[in-house]
Specification:
By secondary structure, the protein is mainly alpha-helical. The chain has 11 helices and 6 strands.
Length: 317
Amino acid sequence: MTYCEFCGEQISYLPFTCKYCRGTFCKKHRLPENHQCTFELKHVPVVPTTPRESKKRYPDVAVKKPATQEYLTKGPRVLKKYLKRQEKQRRQAMRSHRESYRGAPQYNYTKILFAMIILFSIVSLVFLSSGGPQHIFFSLPGLIYEYTYYTFFTALFVSSRDFFGLFFLFIMLIFLYFMARNIELNHGWKFLIKLYVVCCLFSALFFVLLRLALINYAPLDIYYIWEYFGFAWGGIYGLISYSIFPIMNRKITALMTFIPLRIRGRSFLLMIILIRLIPGLLLALFYYNPIYLLLYLPELGGILGAYIIYKYQFGRI
């Protein structure tokens, strides 16, 4: 890659060469007065004329002779000097970049968010084993009869119900880390937290609506262990979906599967939806009880929340 010799910025387009100092510069510093040029003419144009006419026009300039073996060996030396100068500019640009960001927090809020998800999920297992899941999980009976309004906050970071679910959550967060830090880098940490919370709340909305729709199968005054719900997976699916929306028609490598798949973003998003939809429908049909839909379908609300935010932000998919 080429770098500007004045500011050290990487040039991704065809660079500009100064006709005086023969340096390579970006668009901003291409003019001689913008890069502190000495205005010393180091390149004299050679007019294709006869030697006699050249002496008359340019008496102080030597006539360019035909290419000789000495002239042919000069090209690699000039190229080597140019490459060495570019490498020096690249190192200076990287050094200044590191110094400007030295000590600055890098992706701190992504790490904090993931740490809270893991911590609250571990605590949720303790509450489940002690028989008090309503104090950290969200549930309509707990909200109505025990006034556990604080579970709106705690359930944002709760996901797993057993140690296998906790292990699977940890693996998913490893793959999701690069997506989440790119969102924080491109849009800021406030947008990252807002996106996660909104996706979790949409997941909670799906859960409440589905729970009320199944009230005839399971009255609210009876406690069921499966109706204690955490919103973290809704936020996780929301972050994944938001990263996929810009590349819906582009082929990507899905590393979150056991076997890496090279598929389009649209197909990968559909695969994520089917992973949650098909098990819930199969269990509901097998046991003749739609209650099992509560275990899988609410997380799809996170995808809807990410879609609404992306649609509002860019106005298209």
